[in-house]
Description:
By secondary structure, the chain is of the alpha/beta class. It folds into 4 domains: about 30-130, Response regulator (Rossmann fold); about 170-240, Helix Hairpins (Orthogonal Bundle), CATH 1.10.287; about 250-410, Histidine kinase-like ATPase, C-terminal domain (Heat Shock Protein 90, 2-Layer Sandwich); about 430-549, Response regulator (Rossmann fold). About 45% of the residues lie in helices and about 15% in strands. The chain has 15 helices and 17 strands. The strands form 4 sheets. Strands 2-1-3-4-5 form a 5-stranded parallel β-sheet, with helices on both faces. Strands 7-9-10-12-11 form a 5-stranded mixed β-sheet, with helices on one face. Strand 3 (about 75), helix 3 and strand 4 (about 100-105) form a beta-alpha-beta unit. The radius of gyration is 38 Å and the shape is elongated. The termini are far apart. Mean pLDDT is about 80; it is low at about 1-25 and about 415-420.
Amino acid sequence: MPGIQVCVSQDKPLKATDRDMTESDGTKKILLIDDDLLMRKSATKLLKDLGYDVVSAGNGREGMEKYRRERPDLMLLDLRMPVMDGFEVLAELGTDLEKFPVIIVSGAGGINDALKTLQLGASDYLVKPILDVSVLEHAINRALERIDLIRENKRYQHYLEEEIKKRTEELHHSQKMEAIGTLAGGIAHDFNNILAIINGYAQMAQAELPAESQPSQDLDKVLQAANRATELVRQILTFSRQDDHESKPVYIQFILKEILKLLKASFPATIVIRDWVDAECPPVLADPGRIHQVLMNLCTNARYAMRESGGELTVSLSHLQSLPSGYRPRDGGRNIAGYLLLRVKDTGHGIDRDNLDRVFEPFFTTKPLSEGTGLGLSVVHGIVKSLGGDIWVSSEKGKGADFQIILPALTEEAAATLPPTGPLPRGEEQILVIDDESELVAWLKRCLHELGYQVTAHSDSRAALEAFQAAPDSFDLIITDMTMPGLTGKELAREILALRPKMPVIMCTGFSENLDRKQALALGIREYIMKPVVRRELAEIVRKVLDHG
């Protein structure tokens, strides 16, 4: 092969993990197999002068031994050789040819040999003597580029497979959360009806008793238990993001300040609390109670993790102008003013690697059954996602846990609101109440009667519609449940509004997949409230709707 020139490929170097047939310094290695000694010496000198490492062999068998030992990047292969010819070399290479380029350089044979070698997997076929060295140069470069592309494609394929696996796991997790949320929603309606009855009658009975009496104190315990059960239902609906909350601009730093005061007073002396809070952080669009719930759940978990040996709890809040890499919040099209980063970090016992990916799953807990429901972090996850944010946790066993939450910040100014005080508002209007729970209907009727209203109550939605159709001008307000046999609250409201388009309707529901607040208001319903409803909330909403139409 006298007069051959070989040009070193200027391809982008491959990673060491992918380029297992390349020297560590990036120099390409070529294996030359030819039974012509003179050709081997001449070609070896030329290739070395051009910067290649060259290994040569005089027949196919010797060449295959050096191939396995030397791990070259490319092979120049003659066809007609003793002991083992080029066809046999290609056959023995087999599937290696998918990632290893072989260029046939032969002085014998014709088109049939060329086709056969290409079918066996050779990258190219050149005929001796090669009068134009650029032909060989181009063939080597093209073969090396092809292998680099194959390896790059494999890397991308591996990356895509990992991404598909990751997205599939996220989808399965999302579907599982949705399925559990649907199940939770299915029981929430009936459960909230029961709680509303317990709450309602307990409040009425307590109102008839002296505050210091034993029965009144016993009813306090009943109401406390009912409130705990109500909160549990709300937690279940929160992690599935099917509960209903009124959002407004909220300054997290103010809520955090109050929580930290509470924590410092209630945490044991063995736990040191540190805070780094930017007082100038803009607000986020949220329900204050949900922000409070997120912070308390995370801090309570941290306390549990440090209960035995103590430690340090660090809570920080900062304002970021740009989104950190790795986070994927949903801005929801709002005009945002950067992002808030909320971190809750502890030095407790940490989380096992096997459990780290499951910490946000509902009902997953490493606590004893008597100490945890497995809903705390699921609730946090559900709230953060519903607010358009993202949450991430890092932890090692024995080295504590670091929860980081990203929330989109608002440009709007927040307005503080004071809790309502004073006597319950009253009235004398005519109200039609509909709920399929007869005991809840009885409580609503009695409660409204005590506030001065005239009440007609039905537990059958069709009977209620007939009563309204018989005298549509006899009622000033409709209060209806959503999920009922016969006619649902949505269907009943449509029928009523078709007769009296300006009729005030309040939808009172424990849970509904088919009608949320936004849809209810679009239908013409004036208010949408979640059960169980306390007396003050009911009294104020009824009065507001009646006064403002």
